[in-house]
Structure formats: structure tokens, C-alpha cells
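User: Can you recover a sequence for this backbone? Please restate the input before giving your answer.

Assistant: Of course. Working from this structure:
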């Protein structure tokens, strides 16, 4: 019995082998900084996935994303095609040719990179303003165990601890959590508790600064 030959698409033979995420090419970085007005330090942090252009121009199709956001959403970005199923991760999409230095980009997702950075005094004031048991306030973090958010490493969530008739509790409970679409994903993992807003504010401020990675 003779079987029909399978196409290249069916066998996978001849299909382009796509590379994994990498640093944004210099030509594209320049466009993001000069035309899109992104912070140069942020542009170095973002990642790109590419494939050979599907059009007639040559060059490469590209998608730019934030690896920290992908981690917060529990998505492993393997290559360009991964983002077909996760369009919420794509910040910019387009095409570039390193030889001709040509770049075309379309913004797919607006992100508030210029988030406010609070002073230690402002952080303490916001913590002390909590008035209802169980109420919370959060601050984005640039260091810590979390992922996502404009500073890259999730957020610290401070809760005014609800009373417990069974035992004495400290005034505040501190958690760290991931951030998706600028909001904490629940309260997250408990780190410690404290009665002193000043000590908590100092701890938060040590990780509440310009994004590093």
C-alpha cells in the first residue's frame, strides 16, 4: 500500500527554526528611544522574538515583550509564535532590516512605564493612613521575589491586620506578589509583620526605585 507524501508543514521539515527571546537589536533600540521616547535603560531590559519576514521586504518580523510580565502571567515565551496565543504580552510588533537600518513598529499595548516613585516619608504616610482592618496599600518593587509591574519585580502589599480573638497580632502584615496589568495578583506571599510603619516604609523604599532588570 502506498501512502501519500506529507507536506513540509505536516512533517515539520523545511520549517524555519525560530530563535528564543534575546536583546532588542541596536537599530530597533534606537527607534524606541528616539521615536517612541522610551527610557534607554528600559529598552535594554525588554526582549524581542523574531522570524524571517513573511512579506517581500526581507529582514525580520519582530515582537517586543517584557519577560517579567510573561513570568507574572506564567507564560514561557519560547519564540515568535508563542505570542500568537498570548497577544496581551506584545508591546510592539513590526519589522526591521539591520542591513538597511529600516524599522517599522506598531504599539500593541500601552504601558505606564513612568510610574510614581514615592519617598520613604510618603510610603510611611500611606501605610499609616490605613484605617479599616483588612485594608491594604501596595507599592511596586524593583527588587524581590515577585514579577511584573512597571518596576519589574511585582509589588509589596501592606495590610492593616484584622484582629484575631485567639491571639495578639501585630498591626501590619507585609506580603509580596506578582503584578499583572498594573494590579497586584492578590496579597501574595506573607513575608513578615510589624507594629512600626517606619520600619516597613524603610524596607519598602530599599526596593522601590528605578527598574534595574
Amino acid at each position: 500500500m502506498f501512502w501519500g507524501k506529507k507536506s513540509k508543514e505536516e512533517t515539520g521539515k523545511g520549517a524555519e527554526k525560530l530563535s528564543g527571546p534575546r536583546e532588542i537589536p541596536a537599530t530597533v533600540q534606537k527607534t524606541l528611544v528616539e521615536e517612541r521616547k522610551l527610557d534607554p535603560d528600559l529598552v535594554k531590559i525588554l526582549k524581542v522574538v523574531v522570524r524571517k519576514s513573511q512579506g517581500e521586504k526581507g529582514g525580520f518580523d519582530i515582537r517586543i515583550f517584557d519577560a517579567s510580565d510573561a513570568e507574572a502571567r506564567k507564560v514561557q515565551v519560547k519564540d515568535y509564535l508563542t505570542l500568537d496565543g498570548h497577544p496581551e504580552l506584545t508591546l510592539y510588533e513590526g519589522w526591521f532590516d539591520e542591513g538597511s537600518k529600516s524599522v517599522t513598529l506598531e504599539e500593541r499595548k500601552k504601558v505606564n512605564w513612568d510610574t510614581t516613585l514615592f519617598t520613604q516619608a510618603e510610603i510611611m504616610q500611606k501605610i499609616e493612613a490605613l484605617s479599616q482592618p483588612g485594608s491594604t496599600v501596595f507599592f511596586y518593587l524593583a527588587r524581590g521575589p515577585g514579577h511584573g509591574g512597571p518596576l519589574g519585580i511585582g509589588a509589596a502589599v501592606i495590610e492593616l491586620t484584622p484582629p484575631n480573638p485567639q491571639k495578639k497580632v501585630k498591626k501590619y502584615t507585609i506580603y509580596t506578589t506578582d503584578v499583572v496589568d498594573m494590579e497586584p495578583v492578590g496579597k501574595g506571599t506573607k513575608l513578615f509583620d510589624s507594629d512600626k510603619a517606619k520600619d516597613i516604609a524603610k524596607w519598602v523604599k530599599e526596593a522601590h526605585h528605578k527598574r534595574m532588570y
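That completes the design. Residues 48 and 64 are 4 Å apart (CA to CA).
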